[in-house]
């Protein structure tokens, strides 16, 4: 089995509104994942998952920064080139 692989999830040039929809959707899904993971851990094991809470905070900050870039691009009438690579390492 190959120990590492990379896959292009996103590659292209986007209008600001398209970029916002795409990136916000990805980040919102990650936040939902961590929220469910945290909730599940609390219900099943009666414990908090600090990792999930910290990651949600990081994702919210990232979302704000990304939206700032998108707003600036929209204001200045620019498009956005986005590349998102998924790297998977088998351990």
Structure, described:
The chain has 91 residues and is of the alpha+beta class. The chain is built from 2 helices and 2 strands; from the N terminus they run E-H-H-E. It has helices at 16-45, 50-75; strands at residues 4-14, 80-89. A two-stranded antiparallel sheet has the order 1-2. Helix 1 packs antiparallel against helix 2. The chain is flat and about 50 Å long. The mean pLDDT is 91.
List descriptors.
91 residues; alpha+beta; two-stranded antiparallel ribbon; flat
Q: List the secondary-structure elements in sequence, H or E.
A: EHHE
Distance N terminus to C terminus? Answer: 11 Å
Fraction in beta strands: 15-25%
- Which bin fits the share of residues in helices? 55-70%
Uncertain residue ranges: none
In which order are the strands of the major sheet placed? 1-2
| Largest sheet report | 2 strands, antiparallel
> From the helix content, strand content and strand pairing, which structural class follows?
alpha+beta
The average pLDDT value, as a whole number, equals: 91
Round the Cα radius of gyration to an integer and report it.
17 Å
Report the count of strand segments: 2
Described by its quaternary structure, the protein is single chain
The number of helical elements comes to: 2
Q: What spatial form do the alpha-carbon principal axes imply?
A: flat
Quick rundown:
This protein is an alpha+beta fold and 91 residues long. The protein is built from 2 helices and 2 strands; from the N terminus they run βααβ.
